[in-house]
Design brief:
409 residues, alpha+beta, Immunoglobulin-like, five-stranded antiparallel sheet, 9 helices, 15 strands, elongated, binds zinc ion
Length: 409
Amino acid sequence: MTHPRKLVLRVVAILLMVASISLNTQQVYGQEGIAVEDAAVEVAFGQTITFSAKVKSPIPIKQVSLLFRGVNEETTRVETLQAAEDGSVSFTYDASQNLIPPFSWIVFWFQATLADDQTYTSAPITFPYNDDRFPWREISQANVTVHWYAGDDAFGAAAMDAAGSGMLAINEFVPVSLSDPIDVYLYSNVNDLQSTLLLGGEDWTVGHASPKIGVVLAAIAPGEKQSIEMETTIPHELSHVMMYRSLGGKYNYQPVWLTEGIASMMELYPNPDYAHALEIASANDSLISFDQLCASFPADAGNAFLAYAQSQSFVTYIRETYGTSGLTRLTEAYGDGFTCELGATNALGTPLSQLDARWRESVLGQNRAGAALRNLSPFILLMLLVLVVPLWGAIDMLRQRRKHGNKSK
Ligand SMILES: [Zn+2]
């Protein structure tokens, strides 16, 4: 077997600069193959990523391709490039769709087909795709690093406290690792945050987690409300990362109401508007049934808010009824691929639709009379039979008597 993959490129140093990343490479020619010189990446965050290099070889190059992907992505993008006479190639990727998550790593390499019809591959180079539009400051404790650019030292310290308390709360439910790093980036406003999210995000999004890369993003402005917002958003988003680390690939099989419900349950400061939203929706009969919250949440702000309120209340109800072990069984059943309805049957002995009805009855006080009647219905039927049959007989007897009486008058 021949080995066309002669790795002749060695990255000696990766120098990070504010806007452009210069990748010093040492040229090492083999007897054959390609050498990549002056490889560089220029990032205009959220706009473009420009890759450039000189691809050299001792024999003519027929074709050069640039290959790149996020280090945690499965699909590799392939771009066929036109090499100049000196081997220069360059490609500008449109990053405005935010398909590559901020603060992730991108890996790229080159492939060239030479005049000998062999294809040679260069060594991969990785670089960080960071949102460098802001003067980030940072504070670290254990495996958590909080980054922020607005607010003073106390702001960073408060965020770190919220992260620490959140981790303690989460640890009661999922094992928390203290070694894998987690980075929390605090934007000072929703616009700055949303400019980093896929398709701009939903306009109500104040927090976002990229569990695969251990990155949490949140919009929290320094000020009076900062602690409440930190104690709500940071534990919520951290718990998405922890659930992902605990469940691995099974995380993606979980119903959205369950992961969002658990994450919302970890918020240290209960949202007072949730109870109000539930009350109104219950009275208006506009609650969303949980089987509609399995694959995704509604896109509009009002219904999304209700979906979070419901999920938080529903998961809390399940935890109070079946214990933390019940919730764990539930995530395991869904992780095994059970459907939304049957995962609940498998884990808790009750299908989702019935859990939903019981939650409405016991938490929202809906249909109490109906529920009581349903529980009693076999007895009521029996009672009716026992009572009505003799009653009918008695009425009939009275009628007969009255008839006779009338006649006698
Ligand atoms: Zn969430």
